[in-house]
């Protein structure tokens, strides 16, 4: 009985501390897949790069990686997600936007 209580406690702690929008990988997955998207726009200044999920995933997603190395899934249809991705592509290509 003691083992069951400890196991259940550990499981509950893990469930409540696991962010809903995290990218998930495992040896049986076809790479990183998103099962939930971030509910709110994340601050642009914390994002350092992004990648798109594998085409074999059940739903497409964009995974933003933060300065603290967190992976946050976002809906590729959201305008802010497209803007962030485009901005990061431009920065990665080394092209400067010289608007004044």
UniProtKB/TrEMBL annotation:
Give the Gene3D superfamilies listed for this entry: 2.40.50.40
Q: Which GO terms describe its molecular function?
A: CCR chemokine receptor binding; chemokine activity
Q: Which species does the entry assign this protein to? A: Sarcophilus harrisii
Signal peptide, first to last residue: 1-23
Output the InterPro entries linked to this UniProt entry.
Chemokine_b/g/d, Chemokine_CC_CS, Chemokine_IL8-like_dom, Interleukin_8-like_sf
- The Chemokine interleukin-8-like domain covers 30-88
CDD domains according to UniProt: Chemokine_CC
Q: Which is an annotated Pfam family here?
A: IL8
What name does this protein carry?
A: C-C motif chemokine
Family listed = Belongs to the intercrine beta (chemokine CC) family.
Q: Which domain of life is it from?
A: Eukaryota
* Ranges in coiled-coil conformation: none
Q: Name one GO cellular component term.
A: extracellular space
One GO biological process from the UniProt record? inflammatory response
Location(s), subcellular:
Secreted
Report the SUPFAM superfamilies cross-referenced here.
Interleukin 8-like chemokines
What keywords appear on the UniProt entry?
Chemotaxis, Cytokine, Disulfide bond, Secreted, Signal
């Amino acid at each position: 009985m003691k083992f069951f209580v400890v196991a259940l406690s550990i499981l509950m702690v893990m469930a409540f501390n696991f962010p809903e929008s995290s990218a998930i990988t495992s040896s049986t997955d076809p790479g990183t897949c998103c099962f939930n998207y971030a509910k709110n726009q994340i601050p642009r200044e914390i994002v350092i790069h992004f990648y798109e999920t594998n085409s074999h995933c059940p739903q497409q997603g964009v995974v933003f990686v933060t300065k603290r190395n967190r992976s946050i899934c976002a809906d590729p249809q959201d305008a802010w997600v497209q803007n962030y991705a485009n901005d990061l592509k431009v920065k990665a290509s080394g092209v400067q936007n010289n608007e004044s």
